[in-house]
């Protein structure tokens, strides 16, 4: 409209300039006729301008009216309207959308639309928004909003809107006009229709009554979000729960039976001989509901969104027999009891309980009544089918429920397998093994035995006793089993009913027992050897110490100062040996009982060696033995420092002990990948092969003495082996008699 107005003004200006050009002469020079013509044209143009101005004012008034009507329609539209930019930020909204959310429109301007959504829907919205913004035609988005009254399901369609900005509104920015429709009711209706279809499919397709009912309850609970639900079915005179979800054990224990009993425990009956059923469930199941009471529907259902006031109901106004009120006592405020009918007869009850108040509405109750009608007819059909099936397959059900594998073979081929047999052979269905050769499931070394036993079964009709053998699963895994069989006729063919018990656990247990027995025997042997060591190595120095101290105590005058010094040195040597023995015994005992903590840290190998050498230097100097280190300074290992110090001390002490005076000990180390290899080499007396082979065990019949008669406990290198293996390494020794010994061990590098 603005463009048309501007174009009209331009045209009038051109006409005025043209007229002015024609009248360039002075007016007084014009003839009277020309003057009158000019005055007439001027008056006409003036009137035209006034008419155009009036038309423009009318157009502006119409535009304002249209804008007001548009704004009113925009705000009172039944759908929510939003204008959003490319980032999904709200530019404008109508009152309908604001009411959906429960906020005022001005509170929504500038907010990202995604912030108003249920958090789990945001990623899907962002994933589709860019494509939707670029081309919204024939597309829609479904998501849920966090509304004031709870979650709100909406469907969103869009249209491109170009909004003008700047002076003379020459700049346009692309926006999107969104139309959001509340589809919660429609979605609920669609879900309930799907639930009905799903329940009918379950009832029509399920051949297992219990499984079918459990699937129905799961579907109802999933759709409604109810805390607990169950189905009671008639069983004799009673209506116990056939299936249930969400009820506590205590609730089920109290409520499972509805039969009223007298003081003798006998079932109470009415004048017609029918059993009396207690509480509200009994009222619904016996059809004694009152449609005029708001608690009941014309179809005989009972429902309430606030059960607590029922506790205050006077006895003369309570139509129930022996009201238990267990539902109320367990905090269920909303309760619905819907009768399940078959051929107009009540055969069960659909029960829904929720701790929340105001959970149900009449539409949901009517919906549940329709479901229960379908359930009743189908349940009776399923129950009849189930009874027939149970009577026909009683033997099969016993076999199927057997914990052991059972299969039938005819002509050495599988004719039937129970579930345990399928699991045993690693099959998922009968089709994987039926008509397959039994011999294929027997390893080569057992096939002759299987054939002999089959001949006994088929030809001589003899049962074969338990025998251990091995079967092959479909993936070729070997399974130890115990097999027995009896001859039978199956579908007109001679065959065998084979019973198989997998004995993998038993075999593992037997192997574990053997292993534990061997470990125990080994420990007992080590204990005996340890006691021998204690008896010998501890007794000898202590005997010498007792004898020496006795002589000093009884006859000190017989000893010279030199004798005292000699005895003091010997007693000190015995004490040191005894202390070392006790120290090794203590560490060995703690290691055997798992009492030593393993705490590896990053450590400098050079620092550890220096600390280890500090304790051995005195012994080396006493024998004039040189100790030389030959390894890089920067080697770092990941070790438990106390353990490694013990290893270094024991190996070094052994090297000093078996090296002659003036000898040499060389300590080398080098890194090999993620491992550091350490060796301690001496040029001492070496050892024989049989001594070398028992170096790291307690199996030492006679321990070798040092070059100057030094004794050892025999436990030091045993500890070294255990400590190095604790680090994931290995320790070994190489020795040449008369030339020396090298002990090598590996440590994890850092």
Widest sheet: strand order? 2-1-5-4-3
* Count of helical stretches: 19
> What ranges have pLDDT less than 50 throughout 5 or more consecutive residues?
none
CA-CA gap between termini: 83 Å
Radius of gyration: 50 Å
Sketch the major β-sheet: 5 strands, antiparallel
Beta percentage is: 15-25%
Q: Level of helix content?
A: 40-55%
Secondary structural class: alpha+beta
Mean pLDDT: 83
Topology, number of strands: 22
Shape: extended
Summary, kept brief:
The chain is an alpha+beta fold and 750 residues long. 45% of the residues lie in helices and 22% in strands.
Q: How would you describe this protein?
A:
Helices cover 45% and strands 22% of the residues. With 750 residues, it is an alpha+beta fold. The strands form five sheets. The protein has a five-stranded antiparallel sheet with strand order 2-1-5-4-3. It has a five-stranded antiparallel sheet with strand order 7-6-10-9-8, sandwiched between helices. Strand 1 (80-84) and strand 2 (90-93) form a beta hairpin. It is extended.
């Amino acid at each position: 409209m603005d463009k048309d107005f501007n174009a009209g003004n331009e045209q009038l200006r051109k006409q005025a300039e043209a007229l002015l050009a024609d009248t360039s002469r002075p007016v007084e020079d014009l003839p009277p006729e020309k003057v009158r013509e000019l005055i007439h044209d001027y008056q006409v143009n003036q009137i035209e301008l006034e008419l155009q101005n009036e038309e423009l004012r009318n157009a502006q008034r119409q535009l304002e009216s249209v804008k007001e009507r548009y704004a009113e329609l925009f705000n009172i539209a039944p759908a929510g309207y939003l204008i959003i930019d490319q980032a999904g930020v709200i530019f404008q909204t109508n009152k309908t959308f604001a009411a959906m959310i429960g906020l005022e429109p001005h509170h929504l301007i500038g907010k990202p639309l995604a912030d108003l959504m249920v958090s789990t829907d945001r990623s899907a919205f962002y994933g589709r928004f860019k494509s939707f913004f670029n081309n919204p035609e024939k597309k829609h988005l479904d998501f849920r909003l966090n509304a004031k009254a709870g979650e709100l399901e909406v469907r969103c369609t869009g249209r491109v809107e170009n909004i003008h900005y700047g002076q003379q509104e020459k700049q346009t920015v692309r926006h999107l006009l969104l139309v959001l429709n509340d589809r919660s009711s429609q979605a609920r209706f669609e879900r309930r229709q799907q639930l009905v279809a799903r329940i009918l499919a379950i009832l029509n397709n399920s051949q297992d009554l219990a499984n079918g009912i459990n699937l129905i309850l799961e579907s109802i609970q999933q759709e409604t979000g109810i805390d607990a639900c169950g189905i009671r079915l008639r069983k004799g005179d009673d209506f116990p729960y056939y299936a249930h979800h969400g009820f506590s054990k205590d609730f089920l224990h109290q409520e499972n039976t509805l039969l009223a009993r007298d003081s003798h425990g006998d079932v109470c009956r009415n004048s017609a001989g029918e059993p009396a059923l207690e509480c509200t469930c009994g009222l619904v199941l016996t059809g004694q509901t009152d449609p005029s009471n708001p608690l009941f529907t014309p179809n005989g259902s009972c429902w309430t969104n606030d059960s607590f006031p029922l506790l205050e109901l006077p006895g003369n106004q309570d139509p129930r027999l022996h009201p238990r009120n267990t539902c109320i006592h367990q905090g269920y405020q909303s309760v619905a009891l819907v009768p399940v009918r078959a051929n107009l007869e009540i055969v069960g009850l659909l029960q829904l309980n929720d701790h929340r108040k105001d959970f149900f509405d009449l539409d949901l109750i009517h919906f549940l009544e329709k479901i229960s009608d379908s359930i009743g007819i189908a349940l009776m059909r399923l129950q009849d089918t189930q009874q027939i099936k149970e009577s026909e397959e009683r033997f099969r059900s016993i076999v199927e429920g057997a914990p052991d594998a059972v299969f039938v073979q005819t002509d050495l081929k599988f004719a039937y397998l129970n579930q345990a047999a399928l699991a045993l052979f690693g099959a998922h269905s009968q089709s994987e093994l039926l008509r397959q050769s039994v011999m294929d499931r027997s390893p080569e070394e057992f096939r002759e035995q299987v054939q002999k036993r089959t001949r006994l079964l088929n030809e001589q009709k003899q049962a074969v006793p338990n025998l251990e053998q091995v079967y092959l699963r479909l993936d070729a895994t070997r399974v130890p089993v115990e097999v027995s069989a009896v001859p039978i006729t199956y579908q007109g063919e001679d065959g065998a009913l084979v019973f198989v018990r997998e004995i993998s656990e038993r075999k593992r247990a037997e192997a574990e027992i053997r292993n534990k027995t061997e470990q125990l025997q080994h420990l007992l042997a080590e204990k005996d050897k340890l006691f021998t060591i204690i008896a010998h190595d501890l007794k000898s120095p202590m005997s010498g110490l007792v004898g020496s101290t006795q002589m000093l105590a009884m006859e000190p005058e017989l000893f010279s100062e030199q004798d005292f010094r000699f005895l003091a040195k010997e007693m000190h040597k015995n004490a040191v040996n005894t202390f070392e023995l006790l120290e090794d015994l203590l560490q060995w005992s703690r290691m055997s009982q798992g009492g030593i903590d393993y705490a590896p840290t990053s450590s400098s190998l050079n620092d550890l060696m220096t600390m280890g050498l500090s304790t051995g230097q005195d012994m080396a100097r006493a024998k004039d033995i040189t100790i030389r280190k030959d390894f890089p300074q920067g080697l770092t290992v990941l070790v438990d420092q106390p353990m490694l110090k013990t290893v270094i001390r024991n190996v070094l002490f052994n090297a000093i002990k078996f090296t002659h005076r003036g000898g040499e000990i060389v300590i080398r180390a080098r890194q090999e990948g993620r491992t550091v290899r350490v060796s301690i080499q001496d040029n001492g007396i070496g050892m024989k092969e049989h001594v070398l082979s028992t170096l790291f065990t307690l199996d030492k019949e006679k321990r070798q003495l040092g070059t100057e008669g030094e004794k050892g406990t025999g436990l030091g290198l045993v500890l070294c082996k255990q400590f190095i293996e604790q680090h994931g390494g290995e320790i070994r020794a190489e020795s040449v008699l008369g030339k020396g010994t090298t002990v090598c061990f590996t440590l994890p590098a850092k």
